[in-house]
Specification:
This protein is α/β, with parallel strands linked by helices. 51% of the residues lie in helices and 13% in strands.
Length: 704
C-alpha cells in the first residue's frame, strides 16, 4: 500500500508513502487506490482534508514514467491520462477544503494533484521544486495541468511554467500564487492545524491575494487580442529555442489556447488527446530513455566499492586562474566548497576572480541570485601566487595550459604541497593523466576531472581513471562530482577520453567536407538541421582553432592518421585566425557573425556537398569512433557514450543519443553506408570497426 488515510478531530489526512522507494509516484495502482479512497470521502463532512507525504524532501515526483514509456497505442495513452484526470477532478470536487502540504519535490502529476487541491502550503525547504516538466519528456501534462495552472496563475505565468518545463522553488511559488502559505519545516503539523482553523470560517475563500494585472499586463491577460500576443510571442520563443525539433511545447500552447475558455470536461478531453498523441511518438520515447540515462548517471556508483566511504570535500584548490580555473572556483563556491585559486601573478588571479564574478553577475541579472548571496559566495574564493593554504585542501584541480611538460611540473609541485589524503586532479581535455600521475608524489590519489566550458552550464564531467587510481580516490571524486551538481561518466585514460575523441572526428570531417568545395555556412546549417546545437565551424571558432588542432595532433599521435588535421585547418592556423577570441576564424565575429571570406577563398571553387552526404559522413565518423571506444573498453557501455555526447556536446536528445541514433538507422544500413564511403576514400577512416561488424554478424544493436 502506498496511500494511507486517517481521520482525527474531523480532519482527514491522506499520506503518500510508496514502499521500498525514496520517492512517491502516481502509478496505476496508486491512482486506483486513491480513486476508491476519494469515493469514500465525498459523503463526509470534514473540516478539511490534508494531502501529504511521509517521504523526506518528496511530495510526489510525478506519474510513473515506466507506464508512460510502455504506451504504444493512442487509446491507451488517452485512457491513462483520463484515469489520472478523474482522480484530480474528484479531489477538486470534494465539498470541503483540501490542503496539499508540500515539503519537497512536487513535479508533473504531483504538481497536478496539488493544483486540484483548494489550498497549497509549502515550507522553506530548499529541496522544494514544483512544476510541470512534461514537455522535457516529449508530451504535455495529462492530469489536468494545462487546464488548472493557467487558471490559477494567469495565462502568462501558466504558459511560462508549462512550456519552459522549469520547476520553481517555494519562494517563487508563493510569489506567483501557487502557494498560499510558507512555513518552516520544523513544527509543520502544528502550522497546518493553525491553517485549517484559519480557513474553517470561510472554507471557500481563497487565502492568497493573487496579483491583479494592470495596464498592459491586464490587456495581455484578459483581452483576447492581448492573449493572442502572448501566444504569438510564446510560440516565437519556443521555435527559436527548439528549432522545430520538439513538438511538445508547441502542442502545450495549442492545448491551452483551445481550452482556456472551455468547461473542464471538454478541456480535459483535449488535453488527454494531446498527451496520447505525443506519448507514442519516437521523440517522446527517446526523451524518456535520455531521462533514464540521466537519472542513472546522476546516481552512478563504483562497482565493487560499495563499502568504501567517500572522504568529505569542503576545501578545494585550483591551479590556473584562466576562464576554466575561474569557472571551477565559482562552481566550488556556489556549492559551498572553499576555493583557493593559484596563478603566477596577481593580475592572473584578478582575471580568475572576475571570471567567477561574471557568472554570479549573470545570475543576479536573471534574478537567480541576490547581491548579498553573491558577496558571501565570492568570499569563499581566495587567491595566491604560491602554495599557501594548499595543505588544508581536500582536492586540488590543475587547470593550466594544455602542455604535458607544464602539467607534469605543476603535478610535482602541487603533490608536495598537499596533505597525504588530498586528491590531485587534472582538468585536461586530452592529455594522459597516467603520465601526469607518474610525476606526482602519490599516483594513487591522481585522477582526471574534466569539466566542459562553460563550467557553470555544461552538465557533464568526465572522471578519468588510471592504472594507479585507488578506489578511494575514485569513490570520493565521484561523490564530489555529484555534490557539484554534475552528471559524471567514468572513463579510462586514453587519448581524448570520450567526448573530445568523438567530437574532434566530427569537426575534422567537416574540415574535409569544406576542403572538397563545401560552404562554411552550408555545412554548419546541415549540422544544425540534424539537431546539433551549433555547426562544426561555429563550434571550432568558439573553442579556438589552435586548441582544436592541438588536440587533433594529440589524437593523431595516440590513435593514428585518421585524426590528422584536415588541410583546411593547417591552411587557416598559420593565418592566426583562431576564432572568437581573435575576432576572426571561419567567421568574422562582430555585431553580426559573417563568414570570413579569407577562409572561404582557400576552398576549391566549383565544388558542392549534398546535405545527406555531409550529415552521413559527420555522423558515421562519430559512430565508428564511439564503437572503437566501446571495443577498447574506455567506457563501460553504449549509454555512457550517449550521455557523454548529449551532456558534453549537446547531441540532440530527441534522437536519443549518438548510438541510439545509430540503432535507428539499422546496423546493416550503417555498415553498408560506411563501406561505400571507405571504398570511395580508401584511407581507413570509414572502415567499420570490429565492434560494429560483430553487431552486424550477430544481428545485434548497440542497445538491446
Amino acid at each position: 500500500m502506498s496511500v494511507f488515510y486517517k481521520e482525527e478531530n474531523n480532519v482527514g489526512t491522506i499520506t503518500f508513502d510508496q514502499p521500498d522507494s525514496k520517492v512517491n509516484v502516481l502509478n496505476s495502482a496508486t491512482l486506483l487506490t486513491l480513486d476508491k479512497m476519494l469515493d469514500g470521502l465525498k459523503a463526509k463532512n470534514l473540516k478539511a482534508l490534508v494531502i501529504q507525504s511521509a517521504k523526506k524532501d518528496i511530495f510526489i515526483a510525478g506519474a510513473d514514467i515506466k507506464e508512460i514509456e510502455n504506451i504504444v497505442e493512442l487509446q491507451d495513452g488517452k485512457s491513462k491520462a483520463q484515469a489520472g484526470q478523474r482522480v484530480m477532478d474528484k479531489i477538486e470536487d470534494l465539498p470541503f477544503p483540501t490542503v496539499a502540504v508540500i515539503d519537497g519535490v512536487a513535479l508533473g502529476g504531483g504538481c497536478e494533484l496539488a493544483l486540484a487541491c483548494r489550498y497549497r502550503v509549502m515550507t522553506f525547504n530548499t529541496k522544494i521544486r514544483i512544476g510541470l516538466p512534461e514537455v522535457n519528456l516529449g508530451f504535455v501534462p495529462g492530469f489536468g495541468g494545462t487546464y488548472r495552472l493557467p487558471r490559477l496563475l494567469g495565462l502568462q505565468q501558466g504558459l511560462k511554467m508549462i512550456v519552459s518545463a522549469s520547476p520553481i522553488n517555494s519562494s517563487a511559488a508563493f510569489k506567483c500564487g501557487l502557494a498560499d502559505r510558507l512555513y518552516p519545516s520544523v513544527g509543520l503539523p502544528d502550522r497546518v492545524k493553525e491553517f485549517i482553523e484559519e480557513i474553517a470560517a470561510e472554507p471557500n475563500k481563497r487565502i492568497f491575494k493573487p496579483y491583479t494585472p494592470k495596464g498592459v499586463q491586464a490587456f495581455l491577460e484578459k483581452n483576447p487580442l492581448g492573449q493572442g500576443v502572448v501566444y504569438k510571442e510564446t510560440i516565437k520563443s519556443i521555435q527559436k529555442a527548439t528549432k522545430g525539433f520538439y513538438p511538445s511545447p508547441l502542442k502545450a500552447v495549442e492545448v491551452i489556447r483551445k481550452t482556456l475558455y472551455l468547461p473542464r470536461e471538454h478541456a480535459l478531453d483535449i488535453e488527454s488527446s494531446a498527451f496520447a498523441e505525443l506519448a507514442i511518438t519516437p521523440i517522446s520515447k527517446n526523451l524518456v530513455k535520455v531521462f533514464y540515462m540521466s537519472e542513472k548517471y546522476k546516481k552512478l556508483t563504483v562497482p565493487g566499492a560499495e563499502n568504501i566511504k567517500p572522504m568529505p570535500i569542503t576545501k578545494g584548490a585550483v591551479i590556473g586562474a584562466g576562464i576554466m580555473g575561474g569557472g571551477i572556483a565559482q562552481l566550488f563556491s556556489d556549492r559551498g566548497v572553499w576555493a583557493r585559486l593559484k596563478d603566477i601573478n596577481q593580475d592572473a588571479i584578478a582575471k580568475g576572480l572576475k571570471a567567477a564574478y561574471d557568472v554570479y553577475a549573470q545570475a543576479m541579472k536573471r534574478k537567480k541570485a541576490r547581491p548579498y548571496e553573491v558577496a558571501a559566495k565570492m568570499a569563499m574564493i581566495s587567491g595566491t601566487v604560491d602554495y599557501s593554504g594548499f595543505a588544508d585542501a581536500d582536492i586540488a584541480i590543475e587547470a593550466v595550459v594544455e602542455n604535458m611538460d607544464v602539467k607534469k611540473k605543476v603535478f610535482a609541485e602541487v603533490s608536495q604541497a598537499l596533505s597525504s589524503k588530498a586528491i590531485l586532479a587534472s582538468n585536461t581535455s586530452s592529455l594522459s593523466v597516467t603520465e601526469m600521475a607518474r610525476a606526482s608524489k602519490d599516483p594513487s590519489r591522481v585522477i582526471g576531472f574534466h569539466f566542459f566550458n562553460p563550467v557553470h552550464r555544461m552538465p557533464l564531467i568526465e572522471i578519468i581513471t588510471t592504472e594507479f587510481t585507488s578506489q578511494q580516490t575514485l569513490v570520493t571524486t565521484l561523490e564530489f562530482a555529484k555534490k557539484l551538481g554534475k552528471t559524471p561518466v567514468i572513463v579510462k585514460d586514453a587519448p581524448g577520453f570520450l567526448v573530445n575523441r568523438i567530437l574532434l572526428g566530427y569537426i575534422n570531417e567537416a574540415g574535409r567536407l569544406l576542403g572538397e568545395g563545401g560552404s562554411i555556412t552550408a555545412i554548419d546549417r546541415f549540422a544544425t538541421n540534424f539537431g546539433m546545437p551549433m555547426g562544426p565551424f561555429t563550434l571550432s571558432d568558439e573553442v579556438g582553432l589552435d586548441v582544436g588542432v592541438k588536440v587533433l595532433h594529440i589524437l593523431e599521435a595516440g590513435l593514428g592518421p585518421r585524426f590528422k588535421p584536415s588541410k583546411i585547418f593547417d591552411d587557416v592556423l598559420p593565418l592566426k585566425l583562431l576564432g572568437k577570441k581573435s575576432g576572426k576564424g571561419f567567421y568574422i565575429h562582430g555585431k553580426e557573425r559573417v563568414v570570413n571570406p579569407q577562409v572561404q577563398a582557400l576552398v576549391q571553387s566549383g565544388g558542392s556537398i549534398k546535405e545527406e552526404e555531409a550529415v552521413q559522413r559527420m555522423m558515421y565518423i562519430m559512430i565508428n569512433e564511439a564503437a572503437m571506444i566501446l571495443q577498447e573498453k574506455v567506457v563501460d557501455g553504449a549509454d555512457a557514450v550517449d550521455i557523454g555526447m548529449i551532456f558534453g556536446t549537446g547531441f540532440p536528445p530527441f534522437r536519443g543519443g549518438l548510438l541510439r541514433y545509430a540503432d535507428s538507422l539499422g546496423i546493416d544500413k550503417l555498415v553498408d553506408g560506411m563501406e561505400k564511403l571507405e571504398a570511395r576514400f580508401k584511407d581507413g577512416r570509414f572502415k567499420p570497426c570490429t565492434y560494429i561488424l560483430d553487431l552486424k554478424s550477430n544481428g545485434k544493436k548497440f542497445f538491446i
